[in-house]
Structure formats: structure tokens, C-alpha cells
TrEMBL record:
Membrane-crossing segments per the record: 16-36, 56-77, 84-104, 116-137, 149-175, 181-207, 219-243, 249-269, 290-315, 335-353, 365-388, 429-452
Subcellular localization(s) per the UniProt record: Membrane
Protein name: Cation/H+ exchanger transmembrane domain-containing protein
InterPro entries, sorted: Cation/H_exchanger_TM, CPA2_transporter, Na+/solute_symporter_sf
Taxonomic lineage of the native organism: Bacteria, Bacillati, Actinomycetota, Actinomycetes, Pseudonocardiales
Gene Ontology CC, one term: membrane
Taxonomic source organism: Amycolatopsis lurida NRRL 2430
One MF annotation (Gene Ontology) recorded for this entry: antiporter activity
UniProt entry keywords in alphabetical sequence: Ion transport, Membrane, Transmembrane, Transmembrane helix, Transport
GO process annotations (BP): proton transmembrane transport
Pfam families membership: Na_H_Exchanger (PF00999)
Record-annotated Cation/H+ exchanger transmembrane domain positions: 72-447
Protein's membrane topology: Multi-pass membrane protein
Domain of life the protein comes from: Bacteria
Amino acid sequence: MGMSEQPSTRTRRGRAIAVYGLLVVAPVLLTVGLLVGGDGGGTATTAVETVAGHPLAHLLLAIAVVVAACKLVGALLQRIGQPPVIGEIAAGILLGPSALGAAWPEGAAALFPPSVLPELNALAQVGVVLFVFLTGLELNTRLLRGKGHLAVVVSHVSIAVPFLLGVALAVFAYTRFAPEGIGFLAFALFFGVSLSVTALPVLVRILQDVGLLRTEVGVVALTCAVVDDVTAWTLLAVVVALVTASSMTGVVVTLVLAAVFIAFLLLVARPLLERLARRTSESALRKLAPLALVGVLLCAMSTEWIGVHAMFGAFMFGLVFPRDNAAESWLRQNTGGLTAAVLLPLFFAYSGLRTDIGLLADGGLWLWCAAIVFVAVVGKLGGAAIAARSVGETWNRSLQIGTLMNCRGLTELVVLNVGLQLGVLSPTLFTMLVLMALISTAMAAPLATWFARREGTLVEVPRQRRSSRLPVPRP
């Protein structure tokens, strides 16, 4: 785009944000104020009681506030070079006890009463299942061609080093932060997995935003992230099996059933789906595409029943689903849009409602939080950089790759919520790890841009032409 078009683009974006704030955010905040204040605060027949008597109305109000807050804060942070997911996660925290609950307890209680939370959680879990399916769908194994040795070395080192450092830190954290009844093995393994995650969808967005998607370092980072994602979800499934099984026999049975499920998808479901995709016309595939969501839900249900969490089944189904056809395009456009626009903001909000920064009021807890961030960043960034250097990359590129692999984002929140749901993480430790995810993800774009400028590989990409789809970059 020419330079003359840039100011008008910025002006249009500014106007859009202003209109959104005026016509969406302001009315929502006014509505919440009326709900809490009623007719002056004196009578019992306030708007709170009116909405409380209509559960659907209350749920819809909560959804409207969540979506508006996530999109507004996401847009604001995007203007300073951060991916929107950072703002959306931050908005979720702001809606919880850390900000809104502390500054305006009555408003928080009116907006998110206990009766609404289970419904928000149910919708959020559906969003997570669809997100994980789309993550599997985004994985492009063609990126592995010719780079398999580099991808395996860098991705596995970038998992192993923070995992081992996390287990070592868990030795000291166990007595202080482990919930009652949780054994050291489950606590340490989950702690290690929490420090080992890379968020592939957020990584793609960062590469797009800083103009590295079609560079050689972008291809390397994406290749490593593909292997990292598969390994991390598999590790999470194993840890969940260890936590939920009541005995070692139960662990073995769970893992065997999970292996049978994977074999069925790879050896039976994938060939059948690929044959169907080849033999069916594009128009017919587009009509059949919604049935793929039935497959997602059934696979998620199967692994939830097996004991390795619903997300693993959704991810595996996305991994085996045929690419480059009308059904995939329909799923990416329709399911992806609904998930990103509505369901994932609910997940951010629900995570924020479980994140209470006030729990870290003790100065010693902030030191623990700093130690977790330090170990996570050094383990992930440093491990990936050293591994990339060992296979022939320059130090500048190696540090770029390490910076990008250190991006955790939404995937980390998914893992942490599983830990909190299973009772492996305490609310205090959950809060620390959420802050670690935010800090490590916020570091990725500025550092990657800095390293790219040092090497002279930065390519400016017009924002209006950026796509959320994971393409096949060429160096």
C-alpha cells in the first residue's frame, strides 16, 4: 500500500474503535451500572432482581460485556504492537477479582453471579474444544520437509529443558503450593508441562504482525512449533492420565486406550476421510462440512471418557482431517470466526475470574512469581536458542527462534485451566503461571522485531492483508 493510504487506514481504525467504545462498551457499562444502582439504590425492586429473574437475559448480558471488553482491550494493545490475544487475556483478568472485583465488588457480583459461572464455563469449554481442533487443523506437516532434524532437535530441547527446570523448581514449590492430596509426581509433572508450552496460533499471528512469516527464520520457527505442539499435547494427555487414574493399572489402561484411539484415527478415520474428500464434489463437501463438528465432539467425548481430556481428542481429529478442500475451508471460516469472536473471549473471562492477583499480596509470593517467569523464559528461550545454534543457525537467528518459541499465549491458559480443574494447581500458583504466560507472550513480538532488524530481515506487512490462516511460507 502507498504511504498516502496509511493515515486514512489509521484514521478509519481509530474511528472504528471510537464508535465501538461509544456504541458498545459505553452502553454495556451503563447497563451494568443500572443493574447495580437500580433506581437510586434504595428499593428492593431494582434491575438486579429483574435480570436475576431471567437467567438467559443475565447470561446474554455477561457474554456481551465479556466480548466487548476482550475486543476493545485487544484492539488497544494491537496498536502498540502486541497480538490481540494479549489484550483479550488481560481483559479477562480485568473482569475478575484482580481488578473489577477489587474496585467494584457489587458490579462484579451483579455481572458474574455464581448462577452464571457454570453456564459461562460450559460455553468456554466448547470454545476450547473447537480452538484445539482448529489448532490441529492449522498444523501443516509440509513445513517439516527438509527440516525434520532441525525441528525435532529444537522443539524437543525447547520442551525438555523448561520441563526439567520446572520439575526442579517443583521440588521447592511443592510443600508451599501443592493442593492437599496431590502427590509430588503429579504436581511436578504438571508444573513441568506448564513451563514447556508454545502457542502455535499466537506464534503465527506474531510472525504475521512483525513481517517474518515468509522468511527463513519464520519457517524454522513454525516447523519447530508444529513438532512442539504435537509433543506438548501428548505430554499433557499422559500427565492427565497419571493424575486422574486411581492406580498404576488405571494409568496403563488409560494410555493403552489412548493409543488405540490414536491408531483408529490414523489408520482408519484418516484414510476414509481422505477418500471421501477426493471422491466428493466441492459443493457436496461444503454441505457435509458441518458434520465434521459431530466428529470433533465425538472424538472429544471419547478422550474425555478415556481419561486424557476432551482437548486431546479434538486436537487429534484436527490433525487427521483432510486439507485443501471445501470442507476444511468452511470449517476454518465459520467455526474459526465463531470461536474467536465469542467462545474464546468467554474462556478468557472465565480464566480471569479464577485469577486473583490479590493472592500475591505477600512480597515473598512475588519473588516466587519472578522465579517462575525467570525459569520459564530461560528454559524455553535459552534451550531453543542453544539447540538452534547447535544445528548450524547463527546466534542472532537462534535467539530469534528462542524468542518465538517462548510465546505461550492461549495454549498455556488451556493447560493451566486443566490443572486447576483437576486440582493439581492451587489458585495462587495458577495466578502466578497466568502472569508468566502473559509476560512471556508479550516479550515475543518486540524481541523478535529487534532481532529481525539487526539481521535486516524485517518485512512490513499491511495489517488489512494479514490472515489468521497458517500458510506454507517459503524462505
